[in-house]
């Protein structure tokens, strides 16, 4: 009884503190503070995933709820530029996909909303053991990756699938007890012990990720102790020849949205063949970049084909 009373007092204190903060920063506050906290539990990435899969009915229901929260209870106080950008995009999608029915304009225009990437504050490990910002990744870089047997190997970056320095995106962030972390979008695949490569959305507290300790030069288990959702500016999705990459020392796939890392590897075979062929022909690094750019439309075709004929691979 005493613990329950203390919990209620803590909640009241938290609500009062938030109200004071919002009034001090000049934000209009809802008459019902509990509604404001309900808004904070909404995960925008979830319904963005719905529309990318063509589930317009569920999207319309969730988007309306989010817009009601943002415009009625929270407005422009929370989320900053990222929340404002998502709200504007949702209003546009709601008009074209829900109010007017499905039209040819019923598409997501903001690439940040459908990004399947890593955040800009992650680090990658180079072949020589040094680290650098993942945003500095470029085609031709040799980085540390994991082979199909779980061994640490060197692998070339053969493409940068997505990259944006300025767009704000919602990331899922995993922390262990030692302060190590990794942030990536919900649909990105990451290696979980005894589960294999699964979407970040499926990772739970207590799961173990595969972590390479640079100090000890061995693989250790990264036990997920905390999970947060954070808006961050900048995202990138490098693709290595082996389809994996060490991000902040953690074994992650280069693929997203698909349910299987193996399927992702198969889908990228034409791109890998093209890259190897350009190397055999003696193309310079600059020419390789241009040749890869020429097959960018392959990604768009692959996504449309999967949505139309193999949607079960994305669920």
TrEMBL record:
Task: List where the protein spans the membrane.
Answer: none
Q: Which Pfam family, an example, fits this chain? A: Hint
In the record, biological process GO terms are: cell-cell signaling; intein-mediated protein splicing; protein autoprocessing; system development
Q: Which UniProt keywords apply?
A: Developmental protein, Signal
Q: Which domain of life is it from?
A: Eukaryota
Leader sequence segment: 1-22
List each copy of the Hint domain by range: 115-213
Q: Which SMART domains match?
A: HintN
Classification via InterPro entries? Hedgehog (IPR001657), Hedgehog_Hint (IPR001767), Hedgehog_Signaling (IPR050387), Hint_dom_N (IPR003587), Hint_dom_sf (IPR036844), Intein_N (IPR006141)
Name assigned to this protein: Hint domain-containing protein
């Amino acid at each position: 009884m005493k613990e329950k009373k203390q919990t209620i007092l803590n909640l009241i204190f938290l609500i009062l503190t938030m109200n004071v903060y919002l009034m001090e920063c000049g934000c209009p506050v809802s008459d019902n503070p509990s509604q404001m906290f309900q808004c904070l539990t909404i995960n925008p990435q979830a319904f963005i995933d719905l529309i990318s899969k063509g589930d317009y009915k569920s999207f319309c229901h969730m988007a309306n709820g989010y817009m009601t929260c943002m415009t009625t209870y929270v407005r422009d106080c929370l989320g900053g530029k990222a929340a404002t950008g998502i709200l504007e995009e949702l209003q546009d999608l709601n008009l074209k996909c829900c109010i007017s029915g499905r039209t040819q304009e019923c598409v997501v225009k903001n690439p940040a909303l459908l990004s399947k990437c890593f955040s800009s504050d992650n680090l990658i490990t180079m072949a020589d053991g040094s680290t650098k910002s993942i945003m500095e990744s470029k085609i031709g870089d040799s980085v540390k990756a994991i082979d199909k047997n779980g061994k640490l190997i060197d692998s070339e970056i053969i493409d940068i699938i997505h990259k944006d320095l300025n767009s704000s995106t919602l990331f899922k962030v995993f922390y262990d007890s030692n302060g190590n972390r990794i942030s990536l979008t919900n649909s990105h695949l990451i290696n979980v012990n005894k589960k294999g490569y699964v979407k970040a959305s499926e990772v739970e507290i207590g799961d173990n990720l595969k972590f390479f300790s640079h100090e000890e030069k061995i693989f250790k288990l990264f036990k997920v102790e905390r999970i947060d959702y954070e808006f961050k500016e900048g995202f990138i999705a490098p693709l290595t020849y082996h389809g994996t990459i060490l991000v902040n020392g953690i074994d992650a796939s280069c693929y997203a949205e698909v349910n299987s890392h193996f399927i992702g590897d198969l889908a990228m075979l034409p791109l890998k063949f093209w890259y190897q062929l350009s190397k055999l022909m003696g193309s310079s690094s600059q020419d390789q970049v241009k040749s890869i750019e020429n097959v960018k439309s392959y990604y768009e075709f692959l996504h449309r084909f999967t949505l139309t004929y193999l949607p079960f691979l994305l669920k």
